[in-house]
Structure formats: structure tokens, C-alpha cells
Amino acid sequence: MNNSMQRVCKKCLLRDMAEQAQYTNLFSYVKNLPPDDKVPDDIYEERLALCKNCDKLLSGTCILCGCYVELRAAMRVKSCPAVPARWERYN
């Protein structure tokens, strides 16, 4: 493999990628969401686990909607774009 080529992490969340420092603002934004807008931490982790096993995850983004899954999963009013009912019990 050519060293000048970047590796595409198909099943990685942003926090698992070597380039995670580039997303500091996103992580800060998620951390500072108002409590009424944010799901509890345990639900957030369950949503991320579902995303991590989804074939629509590509380098921390959902290929259906283009969002960063770590942001979408944190927000109470959001649903899974692939299967909206997937997160229903977490809303």
C-alpha cells in the first residue's frame, strides 16, 4: 500500500480514529449540549454501538445523511436515518 494513501476506517467512530484531534470542536459541542437536548450517557453509548455495527457507517459519518454519528446519537430529537425505529426506545 502506498504510504501517501489515507486509510479509510469503515467501521470507526470519530473517537476511535487516529485523527480524532481534528474533531475537538465536535466532541466539545456534544459534551456541552443542554441536558434537555441530550440523551443520557448510557443511551448515547447504546446508540453508538448500533451505529458501529451498521453498514452505513463510514469514517465516523452516516452515508445516508452525512452526519457525524457521534453528534446525531447524542441528540434526543434525532433518529437513525437507516431505520428510524432503531432508536425509538431511546427517545
Secondary structure layout:
Elements (H helix, E strand, L loop, with lengths): L23 H8 L9 H12 L4 E2 L2 E2 L6 H4 L19
Antiparallel strand pairs: 1-2
Q: What proportion of the residues is helical, as a percent range?
A: 25-40%
Extract low-pLDDT stretches: none
Following the backbone from N to C, one meets helices and strands in this order, namely HHEEH
Q: What is the general shape?
A: globular
What fraction of the residues are assigned to beta strands by DSSP?
A: under 5%
Q: Which class do the helix and strand fractions yield?
A: mainly alpha
Query: How many E-type strands?
Result: 2
Fill in the keyword field for this structure.
91 residues, mainly alpha, two-stranded antiparallel sheet, 26% helix, globular
Note down, in words, how this protein is organized.
This protein is mainly alpha-helical and 91 residues long. A hairpin with a 2-residue loop joins strand 1 and strand 2. The chain has a two-stranded antiparallel ribbon. The termini are far apart. It contains 3 helices and 2 strands. Helix content is 26%, strand content 4%. The mean pLDDT is 81.
In a few lines, what is going on in this structure?
The chain is mostly helical and 91 residues long. The protein has helices spanning 24-31, 41-52, 69-72; strands at 57-58, 61-62.
